[in-house]
Amino acid sequence: MSSVFGFAIILSSGIAARGNAGILACEFTFTSVSDGLFYVFNGNTGRQGRPPHQVLGIHFRFSGILAIDDRDFAVAFSVRISMAPGRVVPKIGSQYRNKNTRECARNGILRIIPMNIAYLNGVHTPLEKACVSVLDRGFLFGDGVYEVIPVYGGKGFLLDRHLTRLENSLAATRIENPHTRAQWEALIDGVIRRNGGGNQGIYLQVTRGSAPRLHAFPKDISPTVLISSQPLAIPLDTTPAKVITRSDIRWERCDIKSTSLIGNVLLRQESTDAGCLETILVRDGQVKEGAASNVFIVRGGRVMTPPATPALLGGVTRKFVIELCATANLPLDETDIPEDMLRDADEVWITGSLMGILPVIEIDGSPVGIGRPGPFLERIYTLFRRYWQDFT
Ligand SMILES: Cc1ncc(COP(=O)(O)O)c(C=O)c1O
């Protein structure tokens, strides 16, 4: 087992003021690792009930990380002080001297925030310290595959399906699968635990590995494996989305979850530039999917989604929603959807592992159906929430 000793000091000082009332505040962050779990204990000695104060002034930051033997132990300490003129600055951390961290957490004084710990080729490390070679074929060619897995209540949601798709993507790209199913599960669980459980988005990437740059597969190469985590702020978000449509400029194997995503990136940026959430892609007059989502429509009392062909990614959420429709007795067709039909739909939904199932209320500036989430989606949400509650 490899481990790290980490030490960081962050000092910033300046003036904090809200209106006429000066605020005394002192914040500290203490990071520790025990049992392989990294935690950040974040405290604030400022007066309780105050909104967060603004810190103006000079910031000083020092951070470093040091590997020591094989003991799983790391400590980091950081201090941030802010003050208003004319007030006495309290001693750093004085409020906590006689309190243990659990009590502070219960009282709401102390927030426990997990750090972002990633797994890279056998080592757990803070994400910002994770490095791969510039000769990695993921970097040079986008020669890799990936998965994004939602985690609810500390458990990977529909994990089996994500791992099946990962295995399929690796086989399709002829990248050696470095792990058994059980090993993948253990590695993912390790990252989930080190990031504090709860709700997260796991990002898992496997590239062909590092070698001198030649297009053909190098011999004797071992895959690069990265597993990282991001917080999942709003699980089961239902915020309505506005989208645009664009011609699908991608390759013909969109069923492979490849890291070569420049087409998707350019297409998604167009919706971002237009102030919209997603770009729906149309090829030969037929709707295929979103830049990073699948598409469903409701029309004439039937749910429809384009069939899973190489022209689109067979989304895990897409399949799950198809099953929810069956449970809800909603008739569903996996069928071609001409662009006109999309614009004329009663409801449009987009689905993805981290976005969940979102109602689309506007396409290219025109409202969809009644301009708000429709009754079919409400039924799906009811089932989804029930499933989610049972799962967590
Ligand atoms: C192109 C594309 N289609 C569909 C999806 C939805 O797939 P899933 O539900 O498995 O997240 C994604 C997710 O990232 C995607 O990138």
Automatic annotation (TrEMBL):
It comes from the Bacteria. It catalyses: 4-amino-4-deoxychorismate = 4-aminobenzoate + pyruvate + H(+). CDD domains: D-AAT_like (cd01558). One of its GO terms (molecular function) is 4-amino-4-deoxychorismate lyase activity. Keywords: Folate biosynthesis, Pyridoxal phosphate. Its EC number is 4.1.3.38. Pfam families: Aminotran_4. It is an enzyme of class 4 (lyase). Pathway: Cofactor biosynthesis; tetrahydrofolate biosynthesis; 4-aminobenzoate from chorismate: step 2/2. One of its GO terms (cellular component) is cytosol. One of its GO terms (biological process) is folic acid biosynthetic process. Its cofactor is pyridoxal 5'-phosphate. Belongs to the class-IV pyridoxal-phosphate-dependent aminotransferase family. Involved in the biosynthesis of p-aminobenzoate (PABA), a precursor of tetrahydrofolate. Converts 4-amino-4-deoxychorismate into 4-aminobenzoate (PABA) and pyruvate. This is Aminodeoxychorismate lyase.
